[in-house]
Design goal:
The chain has about 290 residues and is of the alpha/beta class. The chain has a single domain (about 30-280), classed as Rossmann fold, CATH 3.40.50.1820. Helices cover about 30% and strands about 15% of the residues. It is built from eight helices and eleven strands. The strands form two sheets. An eight-stranded mixed beta sheet has the order 1-4-7-5-8-9-10-11, sandwiched between helices. The chain has a three-stranded antiparallel beta sheet with strand order 2-3-6. Helix 5 links the parallel strand 8 and strand 9. Helix 3 crosses helix 5 (about 165-170). The longest helix has 21 residues, at about 5-25. About 45% of the residues are buried.
Length: about 290
């Protein structure tokens, strides 16, 4: 075998190895010993792939985050990305991996949350109990390892889509202080997000806004169902009246679940750039 052959073989293996690492980063379990409330649940996670190439996951018993680290400059900002799916599934491609990759390319460390599902078949989990506990634990986990990932603990936010938007909003309403006496360093952290990004969130009518809420970026489609297309406007007013920094975008001729897809067209394709500008406006992201 020639040196040229081995060089080519090495380069091919390196390229495919890098692609695999990019496509499937290693998941980090939120509770290495198992999540409280999931004891004895041994059912396997399942995934289907839609005709559009979306990966859709259900039957989650071991919640986790998948990290997407900055590919260039590290801004110190971090976002926990929460996909939607009606609390029965996780549409984890266009509402999880795609946004995480896009924002990581802007220097933002992202973590895609895989959370337990209250409305999956035969599920015994609840939204307010188990799902909220998963996002709170994810925030605490990221804060506990901020130095390792070069993250500013004052710049860790949440971004949720649809049902994930509901969870993001709930985490920004029900944050708690850390338990400094806890043996688990993760539980010593507080779980207040520094900012919240609510993308066409569900169940808006149950949101309770206070003046202590983190700054919020809200986006939705004009052609979404009424409770969301009109609800996001009403939600914006709630934050404004509470004195919370808020920004709202409603896109014409757009329905539910746009996320980041290659097939998106028109003004809605610019929402990630508009979010970046907002992060700069609130002094979260610095050039």
């Amino acid at each position: 075998m020639t040196k040229k052959f081995w060089l080519i073989t090495f380069l091919i293996c390196s390229v495919y190895g890098a692609m695999a690492q990019d496509i499937i980063p290693k998941e980090i379990p939120l509770w290495p010993g198992g999540a409280p409330g999931s004891e004895g649940k041994t059912g396997m996670e399942s995934m289907r792939i839609t005709d559009q190439g979306d990966h859709v996951i259900t039957n989650v018993n071991n919640p986790s985050v998948t990290p997407y680290l900055p590919t260039g400059k590290n801004s110190g900002v971090s976002i926990i990305v929460i996909p939607g799916g009606g609390h029965s599934e996780l549409w984890i491609t266009h509402e999880g991996y795609n946004p995480a990759k896009w924002f990581a390319a802007q220097g933002i460390t992202c973590f895609v949350l895989k959370y337990r599902l209250a409305k999956a078949k035969n599920s015994t989990y609840t939204v307010d109990g188990d799902e909220v506990a998963d996002i709170q634990r994810a925030i605490r986990l990221v804060k506990s390892r901020a130095a390792e990932w070069h993250i500013d603990t004052a710049k860790i936010g949440v971004m949720g889509f649809s049902a994930g938007g509901e969870l993001a909003a709930l985490s920004a309403m029900r944050f708690t202080a850390g338990n400094l006496a806890a043996a688990d360093v993760i539980e010593q952290q507080n779980d207040r997000p520094a900012f919240q990004v609510l993308m066409y969130p569900g169940n808006i009518s149950r949101f309770e806004v206070s003046k202590n809420s983190p700054p919020v970026f809200i986006a939705g489609g004009n052609d979404d169902r009424q409770d969301i297309s009109e609800g996001v406007a009403q939600l914006y007013l709630k934050y404004k009246q509470a004195g919370v920094t808020a920004e709202l975008h409603i896109y014409a001729k757009v329905g539910h679940g746009f996320g980041i897809r290659a097939t998106n067209t028109g003004a809605v394709t610019a929402w990630p750039q508009e979010l970046m500008l907002w992060l700069k406006d609130i002094k979260m992201y610095l050039d």
